[in-house]
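dude i think i finally got it to work??
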Amino acid sequence: MKKIYWCFLLLPLMLCASCTMMVKTIAKSAAKNYDDHVDLQINQLKLVDTLGKTASFEQLYAGKTVYLYLWKSPILLPPDDKDPLYKGLKDRFTKYDDVVFINLYTGSKEEDWKLIHGLQQKNVKAFHLAEDPANTAFRELYGISTSPQIVSKDGHILGFKGPLPSDKLVVDYALYQARNGMNATASTKILIKGVNKEERLSTDELKSWYSAHFGKDPNEKINASISNKGADN
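look at this
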């Protein structure tokens, strides 16, 4: 009888541990390709803003960590401030003056590009790729993807089709660590490893970051899941 009792008592604990391991495994798998193009530098890209002015990415954003939304399909536009998760992410990073949010249209249809004017995006600059040979390989790499990228202060892709605004804790930590040159795969692995079976942060470093970044108690349960690797349409 005692054995049966202990089996019933241990079963929920085993299921909890199993679920935690499963979530971690899925998250690691989703994040493993974030570092696919860490050697790709995009400083040479030629961007055109909404006023028609052309400049290189380096001229515009040298020394800045950039959360860049790429898009081409008019069916799937970048999120704007009507999306509370995207707006929330932007709001949390307003205190870091070295982080900026932009979006970039990779297509060539004027009527599609004009759709950007319908987006409500406070403090988000919009660009399209200029018709320049420097942009060809980049345009081909992303195809018709609508996805976020994290770009380092020296123009390298630290988060290729990286974490989405809905990937709450993961996207915050990845974008924060990108300020120090860490790619999103590495930062995500650190974060996932630092979440214990009670779904709480287990290291002093992560707890300290959480308190400073979110301005609240780091002892609450943590959501470190990853929804997907960006959207392709």
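The CA atoms of residues 72 and 143 lie 8 Å apart.
im so relieved honestly
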